[in-house]
Hints:
The structure holds two protein chains of two kinds. A two-stranded antiparallel ribbon of chain A has the order 1-2. In chain A, a hairpin with a 2-residue loop joins strand 1 (63-73) and strand 2 (76-84). Chain A contains 27 helices and two strands. Chain A is mostly helical. Chain A has helices at residues 9-24, 30-55, 86-109, 116-135, 139-157, 164-195, 200-209, 221-236, 245-248, 254-263, 268-275, 277-281, 284-307, 311-331, 335-362, 380-394, 400-413, 417-445, 461-467, 482-497, 512-534, 536-545, 562-593, 597-605, 607-613, 618-666, 673-696; strands spanning 63-73, 76-84. The N and C termini of chain A lie far apart (87 Å). The longest helix of chain A has 49 residues, at 618-666. Residues 453-474 and 524-561 of chain A have low confidence and may be disordered. Chain B has one domain (4-94): Orthogonal Bundle (Helix Hairpins), CATH 1.10.287.3510. Chain B contains three helices and no strands. Chain B has helices at 4-24, 28-53, 57-87. The longest helix of chain B has 31 residues, at 57-87. Chains A and B meet through helix 27 of A and helix 1 of B.
Amino acid sequence: MEQNLHLWTIPLLPLAGAAINGTVGKRLQKNVVSAIALLFPALAFLQAAWVAAAFFDLRHVPYIEEHMEWIAAGNFTVHFAFMLDQLSLVMLLVVTGVGFLIHVYSVGYMSEDPGYYRFFSYLNLFMFFMLMLILANNYLLMFVGWEGVGLASYLLIGFYFLKHSASQAGKKAFVTNRVGDFAFLIGMFLLVQKFNSLDYSVVFAGIRNGNFPVESGGAGFLTWVAICLMVGACGKSAQLPLYVWLPDAMEGPTPVSALIHAATMVTAGIYMVARSNIIFNHAPIALTCVAIIGALTAIFAASIGITQFDIKRVLAYSTISQLGYMFMACGVAAYSAAIFHLMTHAFFKALLFLSAGSVIHALSGEQDMRRMGGLKKLIPWTFMVMTAGTIAIAGIWPFAGFFSKDEILWKTWSSGPSGKIFWGIGWITALMTSFYMFRLLFMTFAGERREAEHAHVDTHGSHAAAGHAGHGHGHGIHESPWVMLGPLVALATLSFIGGWIGWPQALGGSNRFEKFLAPVFEQSETASPSQEKGAPPVAGEHAAAAPGRPQVEPGHSGTTEVHGEEGMEQLLTGLSLLAAFSGLGAAWYLYGIRPEKPAQIAEAFGGFYRTVKNKYYVDEIYQEAIIDPIVQGSDEILWRSVDAGIIDGAVNGAGSTARFFSGRLRQMQSGNIRSYAGWVAIGAVGVLAYMIYMGMQ
Amino acid sequence: MVPVSFYLVLSAILFTVGVAAFIYKRNIITIFMSIELMLNAVNLSFVAFANVRGNVSGHVFVFFVMVVAAAEAAAGLAIIISVFRTRETLNVDKVNLLKL
């Protein structure tokens, strides 16, 4: 008898918290609200930790827990069922762990906000849906979580709903995600059509055993499924061309940006692609698309990140860029590297966002880096943890980002000829990442305080307005309370040591992380070689015929090459360190030593700089090309012609026709008894005449 | 023996006269009387059929009709009196409160 892990309680605990705070929170004391808001995620985290401990004793992985039938239509059924395998376990720990820390932080950050209970209710609700997404045993249940986190994201982006830009941003996020969700749905329909099930096990087994060879020749069924899923992931994980919502999502409170728009929700797309690795491995064309989209997004967002001045927007573009990295890793079938980066990114990006929140908090709502500077001495703890986060994201040894980023770059390099290009893009992106992150750090903390005269015109939300009105005009720059610093320190520690579990073999480690995740991905990896083994004589041709086809794990190749590969890997590691340090150096030179330089450079690049600074005018292009035509079409065609003309016309027409005829019929109802009697008599005569006529027949 | 058709023709004539009077007359009492006429026209055909078929249920039915007609006359006359008291007319065309 397998041990019962009671997975269902993990998502349900935060839901209970959300329900309590959402219904009666308004009438509760603030500290009771915080206690509830912290207790349930904490319990969920403890449960997750216990599950993780018990996981290693499980005899059957994946562990599956079926609770009840949800949908039964003919012979198609969907269950409320949860699944735990290595992949979902990693996600589970990241979400509950980082999520809990961010909850703690929020207690301090949001303490002055009138919508305190509402905030925590939404935050717990988000945890519930995210855990559903992770633990689901089938695509449909995953989709429930998927939509749910979208809802929570919408609610939290628009948390300051009285602010127009915030509610607009929430709407934008929701609608943009809808585009991706649509594709995800289509992908699911295709799967149902073919496999009559949405259970992971059934679908994946069907692909492994069924007649679905690797579609290297051309786009087949699985390619379409994979592309649909990919578009879905693009929406959620903010990839080109659907990334536009994420920068605007920064309208939400900073802990929300940290939890939802950096650490957890946006990684759902990566998780989904990794979860569907079998489908993607059988569809090399789709996989190549994933890699291309990831690589382009990475460099595109990084270039925008360099030019931004809003501290949160820099981090937002950095998030998009890092997600692009993960996508790229998925695209070269290095799923474990992607998940590894997902995890380390969750640590250091949550840390960076929360530190940025701490800075904003200290400056009473200021977000423009041009009005910061010299904060090192004023908020030393924040400075220290933020430095740790910056080093981690820049990829400097031995911080977490180094290992995961290096892993991705190495996997891309070794994935075949086209991988070299992706590696090049990734390398440049790494350089840019290091540059804009250190730029952020130097602009914020180094040098002299640049207090612009209009620095306290508070443009950043009711949080600051409501929360810090009492602090006066910026003279009260203060370190954040311990309830905020505690999570920061914890995350900084994780950003420091978190990468060590994936210490690569080339550097004398054992890469435990990859080995741990291997069972989830190995099934698919063995699936493709077994296809080739099935027909040994053509195996070589098969591989040769598809140069773009991602290779299987390099570890599978012969031991003779190991030494050469290790040398190569060490060389590449050196190169990525070089990128990180060049970025650091350039940022130090431009923003530390010669602060007047950046403006001159920007001047020199003129038009190009403005293009990048305005985010390549993507929002404007979308506005022109998509939103305006839709709005106009809705306005002129759908509203004025179809709705007002045809639909209203039909309804009004039916009404006035009825009115016309009843007006005529009304005349019969004269109220004159004798005329009624006359009608009766005429009727009787008619009946009689008919009867006589029938009698004569 | 008079054939049954004679009775039926008489009954039809009486009924038609009743209908015609009901439609054309304006005085409520006349209308009332024309109703009685129609009822009795029907009674006549009942009796005629009962006689021809040798079945008593026709006769019995006539008694029912008479009882109902008597009750109706009582109620109807009461209404007529109260109408006359309130509106001081017996012209049905003037008793038209329910008309549009």
